[in-house]
Amino acid sequence: MTEPRAWNSRVDDLLTRLSCDSLVEPVGLEHVRTQLLAVATAIGESASPEAQSCADRIRLLSLDLTAAQIGRTVEETLAGWEAIKGGDVPRDVTRAGIPPAPAPAPAAVVPDDELATLASDPEMAGMFVTPTVGGWTPLARLRVEQRWLDPWDGTSHRVRILTRAQRPLGRGTPWGTFAYDEAMFTIDRTSRGPARGFDRNRLAFGVTRRFSKVLSNDIGYIWEHTAVPSGSRNEHIFLAAVNLALPR
Hints:
Elements: H1 4-21, H2 29-43, H3 49-63, H4 70-84, H5 115-119, H6 122-125, E1 128-129, E2 137-147, E3 156-168, E4 175-186, E5 197-210, E6 215-228, E7 231-244
Helix pairs in contact: 1-2, 2-3, 2-4, 3-4
């Protein structure tokens, strides 16, 4: 028999992942539905009528889920769990049998080199979302870009490697925090253009606030270390970005 405290903690972990992933845009509908069913399965391991009713309600919500209902569904799921939490003793439960939720499909890459896109939600940066670790959602992006600027004599190609982690500041809150690091390397030589090798690195952290499924705001700090002909240059940047993710 699993102790109620361990069972509570396991359901809390699943709900934390659900809450965090539901803030990542674009939200994968099937990904959220899979997480809801995992939560329902875990809660349903309790023999109490209240837990069984809550689990059945979550399953019903997952069946009728649409992208516009994700926020409200997550809030109702959290509220339902809080109403029964700690009030029952689960049956013999194990961690086996609950498959990990698949990561949502990566978003499309958008035009680059605006600082706002670097700290914004994943739909703005073409990131790949990986499983949540300790409440944090790690994200990664590899981008190869082709650039041409006056007075360069040709095009230049640059590799950008970005890793980011973000998490909500509390269950059900629209506030979150993020940190990321992005390294950039030029892979060819261009006459009168950038040299091959290290180009720059950006390290940033801050807070984010989601107002709706399409609108969010990031505020933070960026430290940028850039290679220049005379050596290197360090810049300190205050970041304030408004992110708009229009439905596709």
